[in-house]
Amino acid sequence: MSPKPEQGVRTRAERRGEPRLTTRLVSAIIEDPQRGALVFTANGFSRTGAFLQRLDKSTPLPAVGDTIKLVFHWPIETKMAPVRVDAKVVRQADNGVGVQFEIKA
C-alpha cells in the first residue's frame, strides 16, 4: 500500500489544475535551432500542458525554464493538421519533460 498524503499536501493531480486526457498522439516534435527536430511522444496531455516522453536516451532534453517550439502530429485517421504551439519546460525527468503551453489570449 502507498502511504496516505499528509493533510494539507496536494497530490500531483491536484497541482495540475486541468484533467489529463487520453489521446492517441503520434508525435510531438521540438523544433530546436541548434539540434534540429527532436522527436517525442506525448503522455498526460491536457488543455494546458503535456509530458513529452523521449523515444530513446540519446535524445537531448531541454532544460527546465526553456521556452520551446512544438509541433504535434495527430494520427492520420483524424485528418487533423499538425498543431504548432510554444511551451515552457516546467519539469524534467529521466525519460522526458513536462511542458506548459503558452497560450496567447
Describe the structure.
With 105 residues, the protein is mostly beta strands. The chain has one domain: Thrombin, subunit H. Helix content is 5%, strand content 42%. The protein has one helix and six strands. The protein has one helix spanning 12-16; strands at residues 27-32, 36-43, 49-54, 67-73, 83-93, 96-101. A six-stranded antiparallel beta barrel has the order 1-2-3-6-5-4. The termini are far apart. The model has no long low-confidence stretch (mean pLDDT 81).
What is the string of SSEs from the N terminus onward? HEEEEEE
Low-confidence stretches: none
Biggest beta sheet attributes: 6 strands, antiparallel, barrel
Q: What's the alpha carbon Rg, rounded to whole Å?
A: 15 Å
The first-level CATH class is given as Mainly Beta
CATH architecture: Beta Barrel
Helix count from the secondary structure assignment = 1
What is the overall pLDDT average? 81
CATH superfamily, please?
predicted glycosyltransferase like domains
The overall number of domains is 1
Helical content band = under 10%
Content of β-strand? 35-45%
Q: Describe the global form.
A: globular
Q: Which secondary-structure class do the elements indicate?
A: mainly beta
As laid out across the biggest beta sheet, the strand order is: 1-2-3-6-5-4
N→C terminal distance: 44 Å
CATH topology: Thrombin, subunit H
Query: Count of DSSP E strands?
Result: 6
